[in-house]
Amino acid sequence: MSIRFDESTKAFTLETKTGCYQMKVDELGYLQHLYYGPKVGQTNMSYAFRTYDHGFSGNPYDMRLNRAYSLDSMAQEYTSFGVGDFRVTSIRASFADGSRCAEFRYESHEILDGKYAIPGLPSVYDNGEEVHTLVVTLKDIAANIKIKLYYGVFAEQDIITRAAEIFNSGSDIVWLRKASSMCLELPFGKWDMMHFHGRHCMERQPERVPLFHGIHTIVSGRGMSSHQHNPFVIVCDREATEDAGACYGVMLMYSGNHKTEIERDQFEGVRIVTGISDDRFRWELKPGASFHTPEVILTCANGLTQLSHNYHRLIRHNVVRGTYKLSHRPVLINNWEATYFDITEEKILSIAEKAKELGIELFVLDDGWFKNRNDDNAGLGDWIPDTNKLPNGLGGLIKKINALGLRFGLWIEPEMVNEDSDLYRAHPDWAMRAPNRAPMMSRNQLVLDLSRQEVLDYLYETIAGLLEKYNITYIKWDFNRSISDVYSHSFPSPRQGEVAHRYYLNLYKLYDMLTKRFPHVLFEGCAGGGGRFDAGMLAYSPQIWCSDNTDPISRLKIQYGTSFAYPACTVCAHVSASPNHQTGRKTPLSTRGVVAMSGSFGYELDLSLLTDEDCAEIKEQVKRYKELEPIVHDGKLYRLSQTGDSTHYYSWEYVSADQNRAVLNIVVTNPLANSAPVHVRLKGLLPDAVYRINDEFECNGSALMIGGYTFPRLTGDYPAMQVDIIRIDR
Ligand code: GLA
């Protein structure tokens, strides 16, 4: 059992393969956090805390004579508010009598087999492996609130999940103004924070900064997890590297507005609070009702590489679902950068024919296929094929594509509407907009108010209708603007603060219904590239378009940043044209191939315009990807270049799960004159096994891991190389 409760000390210990999490119920019933880190045997970590009388940190009434006891300096599992802990709080609420104070004390706990689920929200699931759940119930007597804290212990995976349920046990309405998923404290140590910021076409750029005194906030109020701030942070020891040092990952499994606050307080403690953003949040909690927060996925690892491995394995096996979870992802061709809106059946078929010749397996018809969609000003909402562009209808085109031996995928952007559409003309009140105010436009489109049941019903029927009618096995589901002017005509004014979260509850419901009814359909998530790349979306769409920037040199850093949290199988990566459409940069086809092969692979260019030489190379790339896919998707990733090297080169390696095969990659981003050759030390191999290296030489794993590998001199425009490392002594 990975969860223990010691009756005599009232301490809980959650144990994973290498880690330990401890908390205890103290003499007043507060749930104190004691420890999260590497295993510490049976030790009760209370001994590490000493308390003093701190000026201006007050004392609970029952402890008024013990000035060393203060909520303001105590590490806690989920904090009180308004009663003397002045740091970042986990929850805020207001009550019928106007008060805004509550303090939560232990009531009971349960230890259960298996992983809890969260009603209405995606969460990590077990596959029948040994997973246990701890539920600790806290209560505030005066305010009549109970909070259940959920802990899911995935011992083998070194993962602990957390979520909270807030229950109104009184007879008056409670207004929730903040409801975080968890609070995690690191009472001792000197820490850095890594976060993943960005913008459209440059998502998840890693940044590592020392935690200063004060509050660091990673937030999105854009109605999506966002290009700007991914809902994932790492807090790591100042000295931590890829290979060693305490690293804590905090990943919020949510796709809407989120906020992570990390406070370094007056006594050097670090408190991390994460969850749905409280900006503009206000939730009516009726008597007898519960509010469930999204899940947080925590890991504690020795080094950044191990942290990534923990997340990669968990996301692939316990987050992603359905037919495509572990199976081959079809190599696809997407027509967007080949045609944009300028689609004809003839053009599409010419690309598809070429694709089939080159070994590609699936054709994705992107934006522009439906009525009135000749540019991005009209059409969204009316998902009816444009017979001017497709004279034989969508069905006719799909038949021809299928006859070529290709499967068919379709782009949709269901959550949006253009004012110039039949849907908008029929239901103007279905679009999100504040009363008496012209809405902010973005790409000249509006967001449908998915918090409304009618909108949910309409979208379900429309998408299910397309999937019933046509032979579609792949959907690219886009979302091309942030949500502003948040307002729903179906909620009374005091409840407008619920709309942004209700939108996501219904989006998840919609995805859930569709993925259950059409299990053979592979969903690709997309939001102007990777604007909604998060664990919540990954529960429904096993792969996500990583960025609208397809330039392989830009992609190196985007995919590098993405790799800290998310595994390669979730990253859609395509070879596109050179010069690149976003940056104008020219790169060799081989380099574009090497970069895109570190994801779920595909093409996005007009294949019918390529030379025979390029076509021959693409044929080889497709073959090679199929050979490498099991290593890249199921193996372990090692980032071999550090941020400092990346102005010169990026190097990374995948090692198969059985360690019998590895592939080493390099892309030179800035060839240097007369420089030392690039030398890397490989990782993750079997020390005593003998490997053949690119048919060049043979040696054992420890030689490669200690002596390393020296790349030949690579010159020219962004050269790339892959090195095969294959075990031969079996
Ligand atoms: C977004 C997507 C692109 C493409 C266009 C179509 O930008 O990220 O891949 O589908 O929309 O309008």
Structure description:
- The protein is built from 12 helices and 38 strands.
- Strands 6, 7, 8, 9, 11, 12, 14, 15, 19 and 20 form a 10-stranded antiparallel sheet that branches.
- With 730 residues, the chain is α+β, with helices and mostly antiparallel strands.
- α6 packs parallel to α7 and α9 (552-563) runs parallel beside α10 (589-596).
- The structure holds alpha-D-galactopyranose.
Distance between the termini: 38 Å
Bound compounds, each kind once, are: alpha-D-galactopyranose
Largest sheet: 10 strands, antiparallel
- Helicity level: 10-25%
Secondary structure elements and pairings:
Elements: E1 3-6, E2 11-15, E3 19-25, E4 31-38, E5 91-94, E6 105-113, E7 131-140, E8 145-154, E9 159-168, E10 174-186, E11 191-199, E12 202-210, E13 214-220, E14 229-237, E15 246-253, E16 258-264, E17 270-276, E18 283-285, E19 290-292, E20 295-302, H1 304-319, E21 332-334, H2 336-339, H3 345-357, E22 362-365, H4 393-403, E23 407-412, E24 416-417, H5 422-426, E25 446-447, H6 453-469, E26 474-477, H7 499-517, E27 522-525, H8 535-538, E28 543-545, H9 552-563, E29 571-576, H10 589-596, E30 600-604, H11 612-634, E31 636-639, E32 649-655, E33 661-668, E34 679-680, E35 690-693, E36 697-700, H12 701-707, E37 709-710, E38 720-727
Parallel strand pairs: 21-22, 21-30, 22-23, 23-26, 26-27, 27-28, 28-29, 29-30
Antiparallel strand pairs: 1-2, 2-3, 3-4, 5-10, 6-7, 7-8, 8-9, 9-19, 9-20, 10-17, 10-18, 11-12, 11-14, 13-16, 14-15, 15-20, 16-17, 24-25, 31-32, 32-33, 33-38, 34-37, 35-36, 35-38
Helix pairs in contact: 6-7, 9-10
Alpha-D-galactopyranose binds next to loops.
